[in-house]
Amino acid sequence: MTIFGYPIENLYLFTLVIAGLLTLLYIFFGDIADGIGESLGFLNPALILAFITFFSASGYVLEFLTSLPSLAIIIIAAVIALVLDTLLNVFVLIPMSSAEESLGYTEESLKGRIGKIIIPVPQDGFGEIVIESKSGMISKPAASYENQSIEEGQQVLVIEIEKGVVYVIPYENDLDYGYSG
User: Fold this and answer.
1) Which of 42, 118, 136, 174 is the most buried (most CB within 10 A)?
2) What 3-state DSSP class applies to 96?
3) pLDDT in tens, 26-61
């Protein structure tokens, strides 16, 4: 079958190469395309490019390896692309988008956490604190909540966060449960 004077195998191959190049550009400039995709609502550029890539690749392979009519190959390639695109969305893109959000933290979520002073906090001054989290260590500027000095290595409790500065008090875990080990 020929379309626009070209064999359909060549059109599948050209489409595959162009979709591959667009996918490569999307990797580098994806933030811009994501902004466009958000304005359109349901259209995700990654899914559109993946569909075109899957469609052209499966169409090219089916045209090259089988003797099915071209219309049947177009339908089969579209079904294959739809199934693969759905699997990509459900098992890769959706989990990745929620995982990215779960690695972040909000300043409000630091309240009540225990950290360690790595740069001493002078009276009426600033030092630095590290707080362990699931995604690594969080380092923040720290000040004493009660305007007292806090030495390096001291465990502290986060009381308040204001303008990116963590206000802390010394924390001592001297709970004795009567266990003599």
Assistant:
1) 118
2) helix
3) 888 777 666 665 666 567 788 889 999 999 999 999
Instruction: Please give the C-alpha separations between residue 37 and each of 33, 47, 91, in angstroms, as whole numbers.
Output: 6, 10, 20
* Structural domains of the chain ordered from first start: 2-103 (no CATH), 108-170 (2.40.50.140)
Contact criterion met (CB below 8 Å) for 155 and 164: no
Determine the pLDDT at residue 65.
93
Please indicate, yes or no, whether the overall pTM of this predicted structure exceeds 0.70: no
Q: Say which range, 17-21, 77-81, 133-137, has the weakest mean pLDDT.
A: 133-137
DSSP state letters, 112-163 = T-EEEEEE-B-TTSEEEEEEEETTEEEEEEEEETTS--B-TT-EEEEEEEET
Contacts of 160 (CB under 8 A, 6+ apart): 111, 145, 166, 167
Contact assessment for residue 154 and residue 170, using Cβ atoms and an 8 Å cutoff: yes
What pLDDT is stored for residue 145 in this prediction? 87
Nearest to 121 by CA among 163, 149, 145, 158: 149
Cα–Cα distance for residue pair 165/125, rounded to 1 Å: 11
Name the residue with tokens 């979709």.
19
β-pair type (165-170, 136-144): parallel
